[in-house]
Amino acid sequence: MPSPGESADGLSPAFLELLKAEPLADLTVLDVGTGSGRLALTLAPLCRAVVGVDREARLVDEARKRAAAAGVANARFVVGDVEVEDYAPFKPDMVVAYLCLSAAIVERAGRVLRPGQVFACVAFHTDQWKETGRPSRFAYGEVGARRLLKKCGFAVEHCGVEREVQTFESVEQGLAAAVALQEKWKADGRWFRYVKFLEEGGRTLTRAHLLVKARRA
Fold it and tell me: Are 65 and 99 in contact (CB under 8 A)?
């Protein structure tokens, strides 16, 4: 099931519009935590060049294959830990991140980008899966995101939330809506909390993403 505001390819149209407001044709964009390259490959036709970095070699290999199959010649994919790597060798004019955000990433973006250049991301919002009572360690609220970006030398130009709240008439409906997450949530303790929430009368499931665009001061 697509997350809030996402199109069929799994990307937020609103986020893409924020990026397209920049002169992408003149820019080399660094996509940190690129995964299988969905954002990088979407941006590649619009940019001078795109570099996608991810620590999962299997996903980087998949991104390379997707680029080759699509005939994309200006995107390259590199195995690396974006919370450890120095971004300078990639010579980015913009840094983007999709559902991959941490203080380490923002700090590294702040070091490599020059005044006027952009860092933009979609992050899990603190309301994501709030019914489980356990926010992701990668989740941010508006205040926390603004504070982090300011600390790393950025001026925030956009900070908004895309939110989708499903409502149910029964416990069974609530469980069915999250069945694809059951195995993962059982492993991290969320499933039992969600079941308890439903049994105690809760009838919602919240998906929420934070969309941010900030410019190096």
Answer: no
Distance, C-alpha 125 to centroid of its chain: 10
* pLDDT the model gives residue 135: 85
pLDDT tens digits, 103-148: 999 999 999 999 999 999 999 999 999 999 998 878 999 999 999 9
Angle made by CA atoms 141, 128, 147, in degrees to the nearest 5: 10
* Domains of the chain by residue range: 13-164+207-216
CATH 3.40.50.150 for the 13-164+207-216 domain, yes or no: yes
Taking the C-alpha atoms of residue 30 and residue 13, their distance in angstroms, rounded to an integer, is 19
SS3 81: coil
DSSP letters of 11-33? --HHHHHHHHTS-GGG-EEEEET
Specify whether the CB–CB gap between 43 and 29 falls below 8 A: yes
